[in-house]
């Protein structure tokens, strides 16, 4: 990859930020050595690693790699058979411990869980727990070996302690009794690692022993009494024995490490790679970045892309397409309008993606794997090399033209600037035309009108502009594809206070052809704004219509279900009536025949009379049911939401769900059924209010309000700006209300952010028994910022 372009596009700054995310020295070094790749499979693999790291961080939290010490020098010494010191052994132990900790982090929670790309390192890591435990058992710190490191060392140190005690006991006796008057101070000190006492110069002959030192004033001599010389000699020998035994222990531990050298090397390399991968994951979360899709066709489609070095809260995202209908994009617009930022955003995001880094853009953004990225951006004039602005740019362009091919991405800022405008524009068109013929993907910024015309005429070349608000004299930084921009020099100059007569004089010096072209651009821009506003309005109407359609279909389904239920119950009731009538008739016929055979005429007549009365009673009930009508004629204003009513034709009770329309029709909620009925088929009823003893609250109005709640529940809940705890409480209450309202589906708006709220919401939905399923919203529904829930 072109190193000059990496510096121009500030790729090194991204690498510096990435390096700060690493926890170990080797991890930082690997981050700092990262370069873009032009191998498609390598890029896809690196992107997959980053995505899996992000998923694990969101699911299990981040993990530290600070324990991954740099033991490469120790490994080389082990390969040569050298002995390691205590610090090197402790570092190896820490690496092995860290391997075990990372291995546990990578372990699958359930055997049925799928394996991601990082699970490979789970099999690769080998903690060698026995070796790590042995090192920590023997070595307490860099300067201390444990007494129990070996039986011999334990015995030596026990003798050292015993000898020390004897020496201190003897010297203490001398200091406090025998030589008390001869001493400068009643203390025991050491000279040349031997115990001594400070004797006054005039009494040195009174204390037999070896003189080891004297004070600077020669008033004090440090004498080792003869009584402890043998003990000090013994202590010295024990110290030598201790050093030899420690050397034996370190040698054994070093040998044990060499026995597991391959595992140690593998662990260190694996931890370094994992530190590097998780650094990319942390950077992606910090930038709110996503994984781009990749192709080999030179297609670029950036959706709401931000420059990663700008404040993500203030940066205006841009949409860029390249390589589909056109492979050359000419960006125009005023100075400070965002042209160069847009140019750098395209180049830097391409480099980041090919380095395995996620990019700060919406998901499903698309990039291509380019063989090389060339950039000519900024002023590189050089006095030492006798290069002017134009010369330095032209030197870069010559180099780019010699190396660029169909697999390259070329970026030019102010192409052809720094010389005569006419010649500069002609050169710029020729350069772009040559690259276009070679199918090179190219983006260029310019102020030249000739390039705008070239983009309008040439097939496969498209105009774009950075939007500018002339009224406020501020750029909006939005990149508009398909629209040629204006430099707005006159408008900007006027706003900045340039006298109007100078501006008017300048306008007279523009040719009619140029003025007409600029007027056309202005008119196109005005039309674009109008069309864009109308498009937004149409999109809003479409969403409202779609919502109404969904509501209608849901209500129609409920109505059809209610109608089928009513017909089914009516058929069953009619069947029961017919069966009852048949049974009654059969029984009556049998009884009448028996009585006729007995000749009891009076009894027969009584039976006939009872049968006739029963038939009349049934007919009367049916007649009453057929002709029943409301007790009074109601007006539309008599009906209010939540009123208790009875549907006379169906003998069903419910609550008013809507105000009567112009035809006198209104909706009534009867349990789970919502039916449309006429006013003249309804009468008001009074339901008794059931109260617990001592309960005085709960008016009819409040009862009606609670009963009508189901009909007014929204199909969407917005959790944006809430904490996880607040959001889950609101969501739980909303789901209960929505389910009781018999809504089929609802939308939960939780936003994207880091994904923590989305994960918490979806985990909560798994535990709700009446939730049938849930899914992430599709394109146009809210993407990953919305979850669609379906009830059972």
Low-pLDDT runs of 5+ residues are 381-386, 623-627, 690-708
What does the largest sheet look like?
Answer: 6 strands, mixed
Mean pLDDT: 83
Strand order of the largest sheet: 12-13-14-10-15-16
Compile the SSE list and pairings.
Elements: H1 3-8, H2 11-20, H3 25-32, H4 40-60, H5 72-79, H6 86-106, H7 119-124, H8 129-138, E1 139-141, E2 144-145, H9 151-178, E3 189-191, E4 194-200, E5 209-214, E6 220-225, H10 229-259, H11 261-286, E7 293-295, E8 300-305, E9 318-322, E10 328-332, H12 339-354, E11 366-368, E12 372-376, H13 389-403, E13 408-412, H14 421-437, E14 441-445, H15 449-457, E15 461-469, E16 474-481, H16 489-495, H17 500-508, H18 512-598, H19 601-627, E17 644-647, E18 652-656, E19 665-670, E20 673-678, E21 682-684, H20 700-707, E22 716-718, H21 724-740, E23 745-749, H22 756-766, E24 771-776, E25 786-791
Parallel strand pairs: 7-11, 10-14, 10-15, 12-13, 13-14, 22-23
Antiparallel strand pairs: 1-2, 3-4, 4-6, 5-6, 8-9, 15-16, 17-18, 17-21, 18-19, 19-20, 23-25, 24-25
Helix pairs in contact: 2-3, 2-11, 3-11, 4-11, 5-11, 6-8, 6-11, 8-10, 9-10, 14-15, 18-19, 21-22
